[in-house]
Specification:
Largest sheet: none
CATH class of one domain: Mainly Alpha
Distance between the termini: 104 Å
Radius of gyration: 28 Å
Number of helices: 8
Strand content: under 5%
Helix content: 55-70%
Order of helices and strands: HHHHHHHH
Shape: elongated
CATH topology of one domain: 434 Repressor (Amino-terminal Domain)
């Protein structure tokens, strides 16, 4: 039996329902998304801060990554027409996808822009071990300076 296209006026309701069932069954299946890794060029803060809007920062982040729009909005699960509206500042970016967006494009241009727009800055958080290492280094430097001063005093240099 030949199945006519769903758009055909000769397609039976059963054929259309059958295709719908196949599509539904496929929706739960994992998809193989073929995308390339993003570029990671260094974009100066002055360029990032010059963006006039969040949407412009998104566009800059995508452009800097070298990825095509489809390579961004499809993995994020954003509809193509909604993505176009986001880039035109006619729709809002889903904030719950911001971390995934930054990981996908390989940069934090949007976060840098957003923090700057609020009068803030970004910095890496230290782990507890790194924080303790910084404290210990400062303590060691202070002790070394005190030792140097005491040696100089004992040797009559100061």
């Amino acid at each position: 039996m030949k199945i006519m296209p769903a758009s055909s006026p000769f397609a039976s309701p059963q054929d259309i329902q059958s295709r719908s069932n196949i599509r539904s069954a496929m929706e739960g299946q994992p998809q193989l998304l073929l995308s390339r890794p993003p570029r990671t060029p260094s974009i100066g803060e002055e360029v990032i801060f010059a963006q006039r809007s969040f949407s412009a920062a998104i566009a800059l982040a995508v452009a800097a990554s070298g990825l095509d729009d489809k390579e961004v909005y499809i993995p994020l699960g954003i509809d193509g027409s909604h993505w176009t509206k986001i880039k035109k500042a006619e729709a809002h970016f889903p904030v719950d996808k911001l971390n995934d967006f930054c990981n996908l494009v390989g940069n934090e241009i949007v976060l840098t822009w957003w923090a700057h727009s609020r009068g803030k800055g970004l910095h890496m958080l230290l782990t507890e071990a790194e924080r303790l290492l910084v404290v210990e280094r400062e303590r060691a430097e202070k002790a070394e300076a005190e030792n140097r001063l005491l040696r100089d005093v004992l040797q009559g240099r100061k």
